[in-house]
């Protein structure tokens, strides 16, 4: 969806009488909302992945459909932010479900789902461009919102594995436990009141017994709250210290990828390449990225170490960026774009790869995913801002 905003930006600039810098920032809010992944992780504790994904997809679709109703840039920013937050909930619920269904092959299964991202990069902007020509800005947003509704359909098929109790069963067990505890506490209090009052049943005794039960509930509630030490120990970076070491890898991988994909064409135009040929570099990089993603999945199928693959892709990407400064010839830039797309698109999976490899307890994968998605959003924002400053 983020790529589709590039088609709508000129129309948004004219519609709201704004400038490209402001509208570009508004559209980037869609990706920056990945910083709300920890909120999605908290919501997942009280909702099932299916309900969370359906709610997120519905929120994203409705917000996108309502975008033409915005009367100002501020209102447009709120709607695009809500769209991004909904997508975060849908994506996060899908990742958590994949981790539960495929605990041993999570990296491989998630890499397969990344083909949807690659297909979306090529197809959705074309659909939005044709819709903009045929139906205008309002119709294009409506169609884009309809495409987003597919997230609701995808979330409807999410279900917990058979050996994992659903959220409803867990809540039922928890309610039964609390009910039995409350019943036991009530019986004990009645016995205590009966012994102290000689078995009399007056209104005053009933009020005292009710007050005592209320106070007992309050005391039990405060006793159930975790201490500061327990909260600190449950923090993901404390439970899984290896996550601290891989956070920079996630940050810089997203920093480089989004800065590269955003400024690939402007960089070529700055070197004197014609705009039509500069756009061709983006297509070349996308085709190479598709091939690289396929190779990555095949290597994972044959049990190659994903860490070694990612290190190799990082090394080759760095070399290609160093070589990129040697010439401004179109053929040379096309070869460099091919190499960069081949390796950088593989790094799109680094969030899920690191979330799987950096944790020792599988129950901590959702927390690690929420943390790395937050770091990913920070990397995207910093990469786009810094690269735009020096481009």
UniProtKB/TrEMBL annotation:
Q: Which Gene3D superfamilies match?
A: MFS general substrate transporter like domains
Task: Note down the stretches annotated as region Disordered.
Answer: 163-207
The family database entries (Pfam families) matched by this protein are listed as: MFS_1
- Keyword vocabulary terms for this entry: Membrane, Transmembrane, Transmembrane helix
* A cellular component term, taken from the record's GO annotations: plasma membrane
Keyword Transmembrane (UniProt):
yes
Entries under SUPFAM superfamilies matching the protein? MFS general substrate transporter
**PANTHER family recorded for this chain?**
MAJOR FACILITATOR SUPERFAMILY (MFS) PROFILE DOMAIN-CONTAINING PROTEIN, MONOCARBOXYLATE TRANSPORTER
Name of this protein: Monocarboxylate transporter
Question: Which organism's genome codes for this protein?
Answer: Strongylocentrotus purpuratus (Purple sea urchin)
């Amino acid at each position: 969806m983020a790529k589709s905003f590039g088609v709508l930006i000129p129309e948004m600039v004219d519609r709201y009488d704004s400038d490209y810098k402001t509208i570009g920032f508004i559209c980037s809010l869609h990706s920056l909302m990945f910083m709300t992944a920890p909120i999605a992780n908290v919501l997942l504790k009280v909702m099932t992945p299916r309900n969370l994904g359906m709610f997120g997809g519905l929120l994203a679709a409705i917000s996108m459909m309502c975008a033409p109703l915005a009367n100002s840039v501020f209102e447009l920013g709120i709607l695009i932010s809500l769209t991004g937050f909904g997508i975060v909930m849908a994506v996060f619920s899908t990742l958590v479900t994949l981790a539960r269904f495929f605990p041993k092959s999570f990296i491989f299964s998630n890499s397969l789902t990344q083909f949807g991202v690659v297909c979306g990069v090529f197809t959705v902007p074309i659909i939005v461009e044709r819709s903009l020509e045929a139906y205008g800005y309002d119709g294009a947003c409506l169609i884009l919102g309809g495409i987003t509704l597919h997230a609701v359909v995808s979330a409807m098929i999410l279900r917990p594995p058979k050996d994992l109790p659903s959220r409803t069963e867990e809540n039922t067990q928890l309610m039964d436990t609390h009910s039995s505890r409350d019943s036991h506490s009530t019986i004990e209090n009645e016995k205590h009141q009966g012994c102290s009052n000689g078995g009399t049943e007056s209104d005053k005794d009933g009020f005292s017994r009710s007050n005592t039960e209320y106070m007992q509930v309050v005391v039990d509630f405060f006793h159930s709250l975790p201490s500061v030490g327990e909260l600190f120990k449950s923090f993901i970076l404390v439970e899984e210290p290896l996550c601290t070491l891989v956070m920079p890898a996630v940050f810089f991988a997203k920093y480089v990828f989004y800065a590269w994909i955003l400024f690939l064409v402007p960089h070529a135009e700055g070197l004197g390449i014609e705009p039509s040929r500069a756009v061709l570099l983006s297509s070349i990089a996308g085709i190479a990225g598709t091939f690289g993603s396929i190779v990555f999945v095949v290597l994972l199928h044959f049990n190659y170490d994903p860490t070694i693959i990612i290190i190799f892709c990082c090394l080759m990407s760095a070399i290609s960026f160093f070589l990129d400064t040697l010439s401004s010839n179109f053929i040379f830039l096309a070869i460099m774009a091919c190499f960069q797309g081949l390796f950088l698109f593989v790094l799109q999976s680094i969030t899920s790869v690191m979330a799987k490899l950096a944790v020792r307890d599988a129950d901590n994968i959702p927390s690690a995913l929420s943390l790395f998605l937050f770091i990913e959003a920070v990397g995207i924002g910093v990469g786009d801002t810094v690269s735009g400053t020096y481009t």
